[in-house]
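Recall the central idea of this unit: under ordinary conditions, the amino acid sequence of a chain determines the structure it adopts. In this exercise we apply that idea directly, starting from the sequence alone.
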Amino acid sequence: MQDFILQIAREGLLLALIVSAPPVLTSLFVGLLVSIVQATTQIQEQTLTFVPKLVAVFVSLAISAPWIGAQLVRFTHLVFSGIH
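Accordingly, the structure predicted from this sequence is:
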């Protein structure tokens, strides 16, 4: 039983990393691009990066939502099938 709990905890943490990767990486790349544009144009407005990042994260979530949902359903089935 303890091995099952450790396996579920390990897979749950790995799943959290994998599922959060698309929006986090999208935000990272958009932030980097906006920062490069700000540096080249010498615009030093801190709030300029917020809207493009927000839009990009929502778009990445909309695109990856079916895959994220499938991963969460698979993990839920794994947890419920392991409970006797």
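The CA atoms of residues 19 and 68 lie 6 Å apart.
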